[in-house]
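re: that chain from earlier
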Amino acid sequence: MSNTLKSFLRLFASLSNSGAKTHPNPGLSRLAPATSLQVPSKKANPTAFHDEEFIQRLHEILETNFHKEELTIPIIAECFPMHESHLRRRMRKTLDSSPQAYLIEFRLKKARELLAQPQLSIKRICFDCGFKTEGHFSHAFKRKFGRSPRDFR
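^ sequence. v structure.
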């Protein structure tokens, strides 16, 4: 957690614990009502996720939808909701990976888990993990794990 955020949370805690319901300057109380600081919630500002919350939410989205071929970076960005370029920057900063590379890696890890089940064909695993073609799946799998899906079994 950043020092700025820690300072903000300490300030927020001290102000909310003071219990003062009057305006700090009594002469201005009739002009400006007393307000308290609001910590941004997920609903109020969805891009204000902390890194851990961001990663957890991203994994929930990917876990639920990784099998869908039509899952793209713009769709993932809409799930947060945030602009696609903001999602790219956030993932680079937080995960040190581009969204597309992270999505493919996530799908490949799921495929590796499914390859442990001998009753599933490689072709079925390919499509169940959201890859459009078996050739693309095999090439990406071999690049990531050093062996083809057939050899991995």
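Residues 11-44 have pLDDT under 50 and may be disordered.
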